[in-house]
């Protein structure tokens, strides 16, 4: 008889201590490349959230009282510990999310970069001195909220957990972190590393279902500031719940991002960007910034598609732990079924599958989906208007400039846009008219450190990755000093 394999069981991190959920219940961790349970995480609930908020609240006064330089030193030390464990952390995310190893190595590097960036600009959280009157002096202070609730998405587990804690921590807040129940393991490891560097209770992690632990965190009366990364339906629910207590909320949500290709574009470069812009090698298109709508000028649709299909067809799909693999599986069963449903919807509505369209040959287990390109897409199709969050590109053509602009904005989202042309006047004029929070011109999605990221319309509220995010984790207080009339007598 084959001996049973012992499944690792992870623990919550609250107040510097590790432990099970109060209920004792757990959730399975499924490796999406083999569809097998490989670990268990605690199924935290309102009791665990309350304990974590209490621990964070107890730690908040001491953390807030530190000088910004002292907090920065500790965050730099934490970034160093993460860098030392980078390969371990990348492999945890590979097993948990199915993202390829090379992409997760990149994510760990981005997390350390973000921590160091916010540590470096901590001194910029400052107030203003306002115009004096003869008898009054007024100025403002920036103060932390206290306890921040941070709820993260499944597609970039460690990068979101560690990197998105940097701004609230640097601003002087303590954090209760609730990762996606689908990809929590590396976040729990982050909590261990944070506990080696930061005072107990500064970073706390409660895993569990979003509808249970996440909702309890949003509703807790002693958490005045909530930040969420994820889908629009959950973002709406969080905003509704937080409104009951008038909480400050930022949400970074979805995208159905256009990549607009003009007749004078460098076609080989643009075709390469169409593939890299989908983030296939980091998250199999499970990315809010993926360029999932290609808007091609009709004069170049044929040659461009030839280049695009050649590049898509060259991608390797398989075990995400292998160095030579470009794409792994989708993160979990529900998103796998959802993406396949959209592919069938595209077929049913009359779009043509130019490449892909199903499970890759030879991969019988795992949530694998071929990178798929649809042509013949019309603006009313679901694949043209709804966020698929998977490796699916919809190609639409245009000839009239004004109609193209209407097409680019004809969705509920406004996160990013990508413009390809050698005519800078056209590029800038188009960027001015498109409703998107971030616009790339002849680029692929990379941006210098410190550039704000965030969207318009239903793509979210607030900006991340810049000074505005750091300031957004503070509250402004006005202080007015009344002077005695006349000159002082000494």
Beginning-to-end CA distance, first to last residue: 95 Å
In the residues, how many domains can be counted? 2
**Ranges with pLDDT <50 over ≥5 residues?**
none
User: What's the overall geometry?
Assistant: globular
What is the strand content? 15-25%
Characterize the largest beta sheet: strand count, sense, and whether it forms a barrel: 7 strands, mixed
Mean pLDDT: 96
CATH superfamily descriptor of the largest domain? Aldehyde Dehydrogenase, Chain A, domain 1
Provide the spatial order of strands within the biggest beta sheet: 13-14-15-12-11-17-18
CATH topology group of the largest domain: Aldehyde Dehydrogenase, Chain A, domain 1
Q: What is the annotated CATH architecture of the largest domain?
A: 3-Layer(aba) Sandwich
Structural class estimated from helices and strands: alpha/beta
The tally of beta strands, per DSSP, is 21
DSSP helical segment count: 17
- Class of the largest domain, according to the CATH hierarchy? Alpha Beta
Rg over CA atoms, rounded to whole Å, is 24 Å
Q: Please bin the fraction of helical residues.
A: 25-40%
């Amino acid at each position: 008889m084959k001996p049973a394999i012992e499944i690792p069981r992870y623990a919550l991190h609250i107040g510097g201590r590790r432990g099970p959920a109060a209920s004792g219940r757990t959730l399975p961790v499924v490796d999406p490349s083999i569809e097998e349970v490989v670990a268990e995480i605690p199924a935290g609930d309102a009791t665990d959230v309350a304990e974590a908020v209490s621990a964070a609240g107890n730690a908040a006064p001491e953390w807030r009282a530190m000088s910004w330089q002292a907090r920065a030193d500790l965050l730099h030390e934490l970034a160093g510990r993460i860098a030392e464990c980078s390969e371990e952390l990348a492999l945890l995310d590979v097993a948990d999310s199915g993202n390829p190893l090379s992409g997760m190595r990149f994510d760990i590097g981005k997390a350390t970069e973000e921590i160091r960036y916010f540590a470096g600009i901590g001194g910029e959280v400052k107030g203003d001195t306002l115009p004096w009157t003869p008898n009054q002096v007024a100025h403002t202070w920036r103060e932390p909220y206290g306890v921040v609730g941070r709820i993260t998405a499944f597609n970039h587990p460690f990068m979101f957990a560690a990197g998105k804690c940097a701004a609230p921590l640097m601003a002087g807040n303590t954090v209760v972190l609730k990762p996606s129940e689908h990809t929590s393991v590396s976040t729990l490891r982050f909590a261990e590393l944070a506990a080696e560097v930061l005072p107990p209770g500064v970073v706390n992690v409660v895993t569990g279902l979003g509808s249970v632990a996440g909702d309890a965190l949003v509703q807790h009366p002693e958490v005045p500031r909530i930040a969420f990364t994820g889908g629009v339906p959950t973002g709406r629910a969080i905003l509704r719940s937080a409104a009951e207590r008038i909480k400050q909320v930022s949400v970074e949500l979805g995208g159905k991002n256009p990549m607009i290709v003009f007749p004078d574009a460098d076609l080989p470069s643009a075709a390469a960007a169409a593939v890299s812009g989908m983030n296939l090698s980091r998250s199999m298109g499970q990315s809010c910034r993926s360029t999932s709508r290609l808007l091609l000028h009709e004069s170049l649709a044929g040659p461009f598609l030839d280049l695009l299909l050649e590049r898509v067809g060259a991608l390797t799909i398989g075990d995400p732990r292998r160095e030579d693999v470009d794409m792994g599986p989708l993160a979990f069963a529900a998103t796998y079924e959802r993406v396949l449903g959209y592919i069938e919807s595209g077929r049913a509505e009359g779009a043509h599958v130019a490449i892909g369209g199903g499970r890759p040959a030879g991969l019988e287990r795992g949530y694998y989906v071929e990178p798929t390109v649809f042509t013949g897409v019309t603006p009313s199709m679901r694949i043209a208007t709804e966020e698929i969050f998977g490796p699916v590109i919809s190609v639409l053509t245009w000839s009239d400039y004004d109609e193209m602009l209407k097409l680019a904005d004809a969705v509920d989202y406004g996160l990013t846009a990508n413009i390809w042309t050698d005519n800078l006047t056209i590029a800038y004029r188009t960027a001015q008219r498109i409703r998107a929070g971030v616009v790339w011109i002849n680029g692929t999605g990379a941006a210098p450190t410190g550039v704000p990221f965030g969207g318009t319309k239903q793509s979210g509220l607030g900006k991340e990755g810049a000074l505005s995010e750091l300031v957004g984790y503070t509250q402004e207080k006005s202080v007015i000093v009344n002077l005695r009339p006349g000159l002082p007598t000494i």
